[in-house]
């Protein structure tokens, strides 16, 4: 009996340790894949595809695209499902990997779908906002053909924009300045997948001679152009090639990330940004509970280029981004769906107002927020919540699930699950920078919905 109790205590202790150090996958409320990060005005916007919780016909079940944002690379705010394949009335489904870019005051989102009459196609949606309002820009596919998936867009220093895409082949076009058409004089260019440019495949070389598989990510660093991509067939690893020009010729570099054999997904998909002086590789695995090849999750690893511009071998980790690039201000309104790590909860959207909020809150669930700067201290905590009952509580703890108890907010009924009310509690003194844990307690399930919070000096 003592051994059993000791074993349970050890297991709980391990969970607490993991909660303290895990950062990957960066989204725990949904299965997300195919990360496409974009830096705009000091914020990272992360666009992802979305693997549904229920897989249909043992294949990718993907109906919409989601967006998350961060100013510190550790806390990510959920903006919900910002676009569905139904936004393209010529599409019948399969919302796969896309990429968004800003130009001329608008955001252009290039997205692959399947057409109603069959076949792959790439559409383009446009919006004035990075997180909402995307509409089909041209009412038809921008590009259509076999294997026309996984578009990657880039604007060069001279203003010329390029769109790369394709599986099993690799193509590009030169986009016009309107970003919704391409230079038809140059047309669609098929990139030679040579041994020199993309190495030689070891598995089934007769079918596909090169290592290139799909999912290109195109960018420029200093004077060198890079393509990073899933390679080698299933299960995929990540590799890269470089060029002195935006259209090649390409020279194969090396493997960036080995096959993630112990993390569940047989695909991978890269994204890259440099943010506040640090380079980051985005990718996906299948490591969330219930995850796998059709239920993937986005991860991030910081890295540094080698002095010659080559990319080092990057290991996949659970810790991910260890250091935030800025601290979170708890005295301004913080969306409840701003999360570094969570257990149990989901997010949902108010059908009338579009408000994103935290839902599915049960006893023992929690949200962790990293690098919260309390400054010289706070006296009260305010949460905007909606609840049918008065059976829920929010425990405020510092630095760990069982850390210093700062306060306890007893959530009172608002008589409606989306009737939002601000509720207050006093807190114990805390100063300086800490991780904050919002630990949910109560009787029953779906204790309340949670929209936002702030501390009061």
UniProtKB/TrEMBL annotation:
Provide the alphabetized UniProt keywords. Carbohydrate metabolism, Glycosidase, Hydrolase, Polysaccharide degradation, Signal, Xylan degradation
**InterPro entries, alphabetized:** CBM6, Cellulose-bd_IV, Galactose-bd-like_sf, Glyco_hydro_43, Glyco_hydro_beta-prop_sf, Glycosyl_Hydrlase_43_Enz
| This protein's record includes keyword Signal | yes
Gene3D superfamilies (alphabetical) = Galactose-binding domain-like, Glycosyl hydrolase domain, family 43
Checking CDD domains in the record gives:
CBM6_xylanase-like (cd04084), GH43_Xsa43E-like (cd18618)
Signal listed as a keyword: yes
Endpoints of the signal sequence: 1-22
Where the record annotates domain CBM6, the positions are 332-456
Which SMART domains did the record assign? CBD_IV (SM00606)
Record-linked Pfam families: CBM_6 (PF03422), Glyco_hydro_43 (PF04616)
Its family? Belongs to the glycosyl hydrolase 43 family.
Which protein is depicted?
A: Family 43 glycosylhydrolase
Q: Which organism is it from?
A: Pedobacter riviphilus
